[in-house]
Write a structure and sequence with these properties.
Layout: H1 3-11, H2 18-27, H3 30-38, H4 42-51, H5 73-85, H6 92-101, H7 105-117, H8 124-130, H9 136-146, H10 153-161, H11 168-177, E1 200-203, H12 206-210, E2 218-223, H13 239-256, E3 257-267, E4 270-272, E5 282-284, H14 286-297, E6 299-308, H15 319-324, E7 336-344, H16 350-355, H17 359-364, E8 376-378, H18 393-403, E9 409-412, H19 419-426, E10 430-435, H20 438-449, E11 463-466, H21 467-476
Parallel strand pairs: 1-10, 1-11, 2-3, 2-9, 6-8, 9-10
Antiparallel strand pairs: 3-7, 4-5, 6-7
Length: about 475
C-alpha cells in the first residue's frame, strides 16, 4: 500500500480500524504525521488520537508537537497524553511550554504528568519548580514524578518542606510517603481494648471519665449529644459555650478512638422558643456549626446520612402558614435528623483496618441481609417515658453493623437510655457507656439487664459504676 492510499484510508474514519493504525505505527509514522498536517476536521484528529493506543519506543512523537498549539482543548489534551506514553525527556521543553502557556488546566495537569512519566533526572529541576504552582492538582502530579527520586537528598528535602502545604491532599501524600502521619502508637492490637471498660456503664461526667481511658481504645462511637438549652437537658450560658463543650468531649473521643475508625454524630438544627410574642424564636444549625471543630481536631468527614421520620411524629410548625399562605412566614415541619460520619485521620486505607481482623470475624460480620443503599434512612422514632429523645434500636443496629466488626467495642458518651449498648449486645459487640443523669443510668440498667439470657459465656455482664469506682478500676489497670 503506497503513501497516498494510506492517507486516503486515514481520511475515511469508517474504515480506520485499530489493526490498521497499529500497522501504520509500526511501519512508519510518516503517514500519521502527514495526515495530521493535512487534516482540518477536529473530530477526525480526536478519533485518531483516542485510538492510537500503545506507542512503540522508536515512535517519533514530533508529529504530535504541532497539536500542542491546536485551538481544540481536547486535541491538545490527547496530544499531551500520547507524548507522555513515550516517556522521553526529549519532549521536556515542549511540555514545559504547555505548562506555562496553555489556557486549560486539564492540559497543564496532563503535561506535568507526562513530565513525571519520563522518570528522567533532567526533569527534576522542572518538577521542583512546579511545587510552588497555585494549582494543587498540578503540585500533586509533580510530587508523583518526584517520588521516583525521593532518596535524592535535594528532592527529599523539597518534598518534606511542603508537608504544611495549604492543600490537605498534598499534606496527606507527604505524610504517607515520609511517615509524618498519624499512625497509631498504641500497645493494644487493633482488635483489642482495655478490659476494664468492657460492658461498663459509668455514672459520671464524660470528660472526667475519658481522662482515665487509654488512647486507641474504642472502635466506634455513635452518639446524639444533648441539644442546646432544649427539652430537659443541661443549660449552657451561650451557644458558643455549648459548641465548645461538645468540642472538648469529641476531642477526647478522637484520642481514645483507634486509628482509622469511625465516629457517627446524630444531630439536627434546634429551635429555641421565643421569649414572648414580640420576640423571634432562634434556630441553631448544630450539625453545621460543630463540623469545623471536628475537622480542626483531626476527624475526616466521610458521609452525611439523613434520618427521615414520619411527618406525624414531629411537631407541626406550619399550621399558621396553612391558614394564611403569606410568603416569608413559611416554616416546614422538621422530619429529618443528620448522622454525620467521620473517620479518625490516618494515611492507611480502609482495607488496612479490615486486614487487622481474622478471616472468621470478617466473614461473621458481613452484612448479608438487605441493607440501605442510599443516605436516607426511613426509621420511625422511639418514645420513652423517662428519656425524651431516644435512639430507635434500628438506627443503632444499622450504625453498629455498618461501622464495626463482631467483638468490637462501641461507645456512647451521652448514653441516654442505653440503646447503643442494647444494639451492641444484639450484634455480638461490646459496649462502653457514660451518662451523667442518674435517672437515665437507672433506665439503662433496666434495659440492659432485663434479658439476661442474651449474655453468652464470652460476654461480660454489664457493670454499673460511679465515678469513684471507675477511677479505682482504671488505676488498678495502671491507667
Amino acid at each position: 500500500m503506497n503513501n497516498e492510499s494510506n492517507i486516503l484510508l486515514l481520511e475515511d474514519m469508517t474504515t480506520l480500524t485499530k489493526e490498521r493504525i497499529e500497522k501504520l505505527k509500526k511501519d512508519n509514522n510518516g503517514e500519521l504525521s502527514e495526515f495530521i498536517q493535512r487534516q482540518r476536521d477536529s473530530k477526525k484528529i480526536v478519533f485518531l488520537l483516542e485510538r492510537i493506543g500503545y506507542l512503540p519506543s522508536n515512535f517519533n512523537g514530533k508529529c504530535l508537537i504541532p497539536l500542542l498549539q491546536n485551538h481544540n482543548d481536547n486535541i491538545r489534551l490527547l496530544a499531551v497524553k500520547n507524548i507522555g506514553k513515550l516517556c522521553s525527556d526529549s519532549y521536556l521543553e515542549a511540555l514545559l511550554k504547555v505548562l506555562k502557556q496553555d489556557r486549560d488546566s486539564m492540559v497543564r495537569r496532563e503535561a506535568v504528568s507526562a513530565i513525571g512519566r519520563m522518570r528522567s533526572r533532567k526533569a527534576i529541576p522542572t518538577l521542583l519548580d512546579i511545587l510552588t504552582n497555585r494549582d494543587p492538582k498540578i503540585v500533586m502530579q509533580a510530587i508523583r514524578g518526584l517520588l521516583v527520586f525521593k532518596t535524592d537528598p535535594t528532592v527529599r528535602k523539597k518534598l518534606i518542606d511542603i508537608a504544611e502545604h495549604k492543600n490537605e491532599m498534598v499534606q496527606s501524600i507527604i505524610r504517607k510517603e515520609f511517615n509524618n502521619g498519624h499512625a497509631s502508637v498504641s500497645t493494644l492490637k487493633h482488635t483489642e481494648y482495655p478490659d476494664f471498660i468492657n460492658n461498663v456503664v459509668v455514672h459520671g461526667e464524660v470528660r472526667e471519665v475519658l481522662k482515665h481511658v487509654p488512647d486507641d481504645s474504642i472502635h466506634l462511637t455513635f452518639t446524639s449529644p444533648p441539644y442546646y438549652n432544649a427539652r430537659d437537658y443541661s443549660i449552657y450560658q451561650s451557644y458558643k459555650d455549648y459548641l465548645e463543650f461538645l468540642a472538648s468531649v469529641f476531642k477526647e473521643v478522637y484520642r481514645v478512638t483507634k486509628e482509622g475508625r469511625f465516629f457517627v454524630l446524630n444531630t439536627s438544627p434546634i429551635i429555641i422558643p421565643r421569649a414572648g410574642r414580640q420576640y423571634s424564636s432562634k434556630r441553631y444549625p448544630i450539625p453545621f456549626d460543630i463540623h469545623p471543630y471536628l475537622i480542626e481536631m483531626g476527624w475526616e468527614f466521610i458521609d452525611d446520612i439523613i434520618w427521615l421520620k414520619p411527618e406525624a411524629s414531629v411537631k407541626n410548625r406550619n399550621a399558621g402558614f396553612l391558614q394564611h399562605r403569606k410568603p416569608l412566614a413559611y416554616k416546614p415541619n422538621s422530619i429529618t435528623e443528620m448522622l454525620m460520619v467521620y473517620r479518625k485521620k490516618t494515611d492507611n486505607l480502609i482495607d488496612w483496618n479490615i486486614r487487622q481482623y481474622p478471616y472468621k470475624i470478617i466473614n461473621k460480620s458481613k452484612v448479608n441481609e438487605n441493607y440501605e443503599t442510599t443516605n436516607v434512612w426511613k426509621i420511625d422514632p422511639t418514645f420513652d417515658k423517662i428519656h425524651t429523645a431516644v435512639f430507635p434500636i434500628e438506627l443503632c443496629n444499622r450504625v453498629v453493623k455498618y461501622y464495626s466488626y463482631e467483638g468490637d467495642l462501641v461507645f456512647d458518651p451521652f448514653a441516654g437510655r442505653g440503646t447503643l449498648g442494647k444494639a451492641a449486645m444484639n450484634l455480638n459487640r461490646h459496649f462502653f457507656l457514660t451518662e451523667i443523669n442518674e435517672t437515665y443510668v437507672n433506665r439503662i440498667k433496666e434495659e440492659l439487664t432485663k434479658n439476661r439470657d442474651i449474655f453468652s459465656t464470652n460476654f461480660k455482664q454489664p457493670r454499673f459504676v460511679n465515678m469513684a469506682t471507675f477511677t479505682t478500676m482504671a488505676k488498678a489497670k495502671n491507667i
